[in-house]
Design brief:
The chain has about 260 residues and is of the alpha+beta class. The protein contains six helices and eleven strands. Strands 1, 3, 5, 6, 7, 8, 9, 10 and 11 form a nine-stranded mixed β-sheet that branches. Strands 2-4 form a two-stranded antiparallel ribbon.
């Protein structure tokens, strides 16, 4: 079976959970809607093209290898927006802010981010609507700018996509090697260079590795438990999501391949 794997790392990421009121929480690992949105941006699919997004979402199976969920950062967020008016459309942020002050309101929210989160996503095809090699190509040279959950969460490393043939999902994950290169200025003192060199191993690799995958594939794992997760994009315009079953397994680093010890 063919898989397309790529790495996900940034100083901040945000994997949206179900939002209640002003609370915008983040999951520890990427959601399916986030991965589909990332691939759609790379392919040049716009947010209002619901039919194309639906075809893409149904065509791709998603799995995640989570090295580190990162630490939590919370932001008390305020934003001014104009109230909705009939026949009034604001095409730019400038237009919104130059609205009369008595027509501007403020939205308050608590937004959650994950700092120094590292994971690997695996894609596989459920039908022939897309080609993994096509997706690999656009991930290297995306049509739109890519980000992880929010526009402030831009990639800090190349995604390094790689198509791999394997009999199980576990075998595909074991074959993929994370490429984490920390640039070191040789003019820096030795103690500082040592900190830079030790950063990946000390910060980005937890005491155990967690795997997440959907039903309907030979995973190679013994599922610890399964949950219903509401992260399958049903309608981007109406912000509606349907559920899917997600399985989880945990493996110690010593039992997994390609993990710095």
């Amino acid at each position: 079976m063919n898989f397309l794997l790529f790495q996900i790392y940034a100083p901040m990421v945000s994997w949206g959970e179900i939002a209640v009121g002003g609370e915008r929480q983040s999951s520890r690992h990427p959601s399916k809607s986030a991965i589909i949105g990332l691939i759609a941006a790379a392919l040049g699919i716009k947010r209002d093209e619901e039919e194309r997004l639906s075809v893409l979402g149904n065509a791709l199976g998603i799995a995640v290898k989570l090295y580190s969920g990162g630490s939590v950062l919370k932001d008390y967020h305020t934003i001014q927006v104009p109230r909705k008016e009939a026949k009034v459309v604001h095409y730019t942020r400038r237009s919104e802010l130059f609205t009369s002050s008595d027509k501007i309101g403020t939205i308050l929210s608590n937004r959650e981010y994950r700092c120094d989160s590292l994971s690997v996503a695996a894609l596989y095809l459920k039908d022939d609507s897309y080609s993994l090699h096509e997706i690999e190509k656009v991930l290297k040279k995306p049509f739109f700018h890519l980000y992880f959950g929010r526009k402030s969460a831009v990639p800090a490393l190349p995604l390094a996509p790689n198509c791999i043939e394997a009999s199980t999902l576990k075998e595909a994950f074991d074959q993929y090697k994370v490429s984490f290169v920390v640039p070191i200025d040789e003019k820096k003192p030795e103690w500082l260079k040592k900190i830079f060199e030790q950063f990946p191993a000390k910060t980005l690799f937890d005491s155990s590795i967690t795997y997440f995958w959907e039903d309907g594939i030979e995973s190679g794992f013994d599922a610890l438990h399964s949950v219903e997760r509401y992260d399958f994009p049903a309608s981007r315009k109406r912000w509606q999501f349907s559920s899917r079953r997600e399985n989880m397994a945990i493996i110690k680093p010593a039992e997994a391949s390609n993990v710095p010890q």
